[in-house]
Amino acid sequence: MGIGVAPGEVVMGAMGAKDRMDYTALGPAVNVAARLCNKAEPGQVLLDSAMHEASKGLDNVRFETRQAIPLKGYADPVPTFAAIKLRAAAE
Predict the structure, then answer these.
(1) How far apart (Å, rounded) are the C-alpha atoms in residues 73 and 80?
(2) Could you read off the pLDDT of 24-44 as tens digits, one per residue?
(3) Where is each Guanylate cyclase domain found (predicted)?
(4) Whether the Cβ atoms of residue 47 and residue 83 lie closer than 8 Å to each other
(5) Residues 83, 91: Cα–Cα separation, whole Å
(6) Is residue 56 part of a domain?
(7) Residues of the domain holding 60
(8) Which of these ranges, 1-5, 13-17, 72-76, 86-90, has the smallest mean pLDDT?
(9) What is the pTM of this model?
(10) Residue 87's pLDDT is what?
């Protein structure tokens, strides 16, 4: 399984009819993360530009610039980065 990560505001909560209630999250960040997840290879973690920028400075992860990916609902391809774990964080 691959993982897609994108930061942003979301609406979360239980939605649906009483007999078909489901807990969900909605919003543009959820859409980008889900689409990146679908494009990620098994074991791969893909991030969008905003998450890459917010993650700079982590000492146990490096980032590989990937080719921009066309995503449904977006006019331009979305720049992506793969997170690569270097070593376990200090305990």
Answers:
(1) 16
(2) 999 999 999 999 999 999 999
(3) 1-37
(4) yes
(5) 21
(6) yes
(7) 3-85
(8) 86-90
(9) 0.80
(10) 66
